[in-house]
Amino acid sequence: MQKPRLLIPAMTVPNGTLVHPAYFLLVGIPGLGPNTHFWLAFPLCCMYALATLGNLAVVLIIRVERHLHEPMYLFLAMLSTTDLVLSSVTMPRMVSLFLTGVQEIEFNACLAQMFLIHALSAMESAVLLAMAFDRFVAICHPLRYASVLTGPTVAKIGLAALTRGFVLFLPLPFILKRLSYCRKHTVTHSFCLHQDIMKLSCTDTTVNVVYGLFIILSVMGVDSLFIGFSYILILRAVLELSSQGAALKAFNTCISHLCAVLVFYVPLIGLSVVHRLSGPTSLLHVVMANIYLLLPPVVNPIVYGAKTKEIRSRVFHIFSQKGS
């Protein structure tokens, strides 16, 4: 473990000194010793490899197969790309922490990681909403599907998801830099999150609390409401179908997306509730945060690979060619 360095003043203001730490200390998983952390690094490496290979395979298959250049698969490629980047932002740093025990992360690097985690999560939420809209149009208005979800429209939706994620979360590093950090500088996670960095400040955090709550409600909150409303309309349309086989076939096209929504939103809602209603950061906080960030990039390509016939057959074709 490296010897801790002293705090350095970031800038001087008329009323005093605004103090920024040279680094934060990442705890990993509270209550676990270095040996346990070391052995946890190996399954984490496997998860990262699975997330990288799985999401990369989905993106490349959709890119190569021309008949997969349809809205549903293009949105899936956006989801896999987001998961690929998100896992690369979090997992390698966690593996390094668990293997080497080096807890230090520079102040600006921590803010950069925090921004990317939150911005990419907002992008993933937007893509899940777009996929719900895709299923709504396909099931409720099948005759209008081709005219509503055209190639340019899909591209605009993807650009809007990217822009919204970066624009709304870009202020976070700057409003964290306006705070002084004269308490302990231990982040009780394996990565940097806005709520945890904010709690380390010894100055007024009202702006951070209000803005953080605003973007959570206006992004994830609104997205989840629209996704829920879409599925209410989808369920109503499915139940109105005269044939039970047609109803099952229609709803079966939504299973993969429903799994992705549940894997993303259930830990997110749990993490938000725990952060705002409980006291000091506990093991429950850490576990919920790890599930929220680590599980979707691993699970999504497995679910979509298993449930999507075109992707599954392409993967089997690739392995059969290598075997022969």
UniProtKB/TrEMBL annotation:
GO terms for molecular function: G protein-coupled receptor activity; olfactory receptor activity. The keyword Transmembrane helix applies. SUPFAM superfamilies: Family A G protein-coupled receptor-like. Keywords: Cell membrane, G-protein coupled receptor, Membrane, Olfaction, Receptor, Sensory transduction, Transducer, Transmembrane, Transmembrane helix. Residues 54-304 form the G-protein coupled receptors family 1 profile domain. GO terms for biological process: cellular response to lipid. GO terms for cellular component: plasma membrane. It comes from the Eukaryota. It is a multi-pass membrane protein. Belongs to the G-protein coupled receptor 1 family. Putative odorant or sperm cell receptor. This is Olfactory receptor. It comes from Muntiacus reevesi.
